[in-house]
Amino acid sequence: RIVLPDNGRQWKDWKQASTVYSRNRIQTTKYTWFTFLPRNLLRQFHRLGNLYFFFMVVLNWFPQVEVFHREITMLPLVMVLLFSMIKDALEDYRKYQYDKTINFTKTRVYDK
């Protein structure tokens, strides 16, 4: 048990120490406005299926190997990436809203 006298010095020490430590804020979001596109694309291309379709798109850009039209080969990959990006953006926005409500919730401080 630690007993401290209430002479005002602790308040001054606490104010100095509170600038050093991080804030008590919850953040569960994965992305920011600037990092959404690169981080999401990196996460999408970690999936084997997306890499396969990307490989097919790259192969179809060479005339010797072209089987389908270039646009038709790109369509499945673009659609999957687009829908996944929309889903991830909506999930992250919901997390942001929830974090905001939690962080601005009033709390009660009990002093003796």
Automatic annotation (TrEMBL):
Top-rank taxon of the source lineage equals Eukaryota
* Keywords for this protein: Membrane, Transmembrane, Transmembrane helix
GO CC annotations?
A: plasma membrane
Q: Which SUPFAM superfamilies match?
A: Calcium ATPase, transmembrane domain M
Q: Which GO terms describe its biological process?
A: phospholipid translocation
Q: Which organism is it from?
A: Quiscalus mexicanus (Great-tailed grackle)
**Molecular function terms, GO-annotated:** ATPase-coupled intramembrane lipid transporter activity
Q: Which residues form the P-type ATPase N-terminal domain?
A: 17-73
Spell out the PANTHER family in the cross-references.
PHOSPHOLIPID-TRANSPORTING ATPASE VB (PTHR24092:SF79), PROBABLE PHOSPHOLIPID-TRANSPORTING ATPASE (PTHR24092)
Q: Which InterPro entries match?
A: ATPase_P-typ_TM_dom_sf, P-type_ATPase_N
- Keyword match Transmembrane helix: yes
Transmembrane segments in this chain: where? 45-62, 68-86
Name of protein? AT10B ATPase
